[in-house]
């Protein structure tokens, strides 16, 4: 994958995740439903809120990874593992464009 294709893949993924984070953020901060009087429903609602918060946090982490990948791309370090400095590999970058670790280093984490 050349640098321009990598950049486009990262930007597309960034837009998708940003949209998802905005939707979850909107749900978190604009909840207008009254809290149910039924205890079991309250528990379910709390579990759902926890899931939404987890998805929001996951999206924010992914966005940071994409931003770091775009910075590495600009510096010419995109294809190099941030831990060992070896080549990450085209197949891995195509599958996970925001990765900064080669398979060997990722398997140690």
From TrEMBL:
Zinc finger boundaries on the chain: dksA C4-type: 81-105
Entry keywords, A to Z: Metal-binding, Zinc, Zinc-finger
All residue ranges annotated as the DnaK suppressor protein-like N-terminal domain in the record: 8-73
A Gene Ontology molecular function term of the record: zinc ion binding
InterPro entries recorded: DksA-like_N, DnaK_N, Znf_DskA_TraR, Znf_DskA_TraR_CS
Domain Zinc finger DksA/TraR C4-type positions: 76-108
Protein name (Swiss-Prot/TrEMBL): Uncharacterized protein
Source organism: SAR86 cluster bacterium
């Amino acid at each position: 994958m050349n640098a321009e294709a990598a950049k486009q893949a990262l930007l597309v993924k960034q837009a998708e995740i940003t949209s998802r984070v905005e939707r979850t953020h909107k749900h978190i901060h604009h909840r207008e439903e009254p809290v149910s009087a039924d205890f079991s429903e309250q528990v379910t609602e709390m579990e759902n809120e926890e899931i939404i918060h987890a998805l929001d946090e996951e999206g924010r982490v992914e966005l940071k990874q994409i931003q770091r990948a775009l910075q590495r791309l600009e510096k010419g370090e995109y294809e190099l593992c941030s831990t060992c400095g070896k080549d990450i590999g085209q197949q891995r970058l195509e599958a996970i464009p925001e990765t900064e670790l080669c398979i060997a280093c990722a398997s140690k984490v």
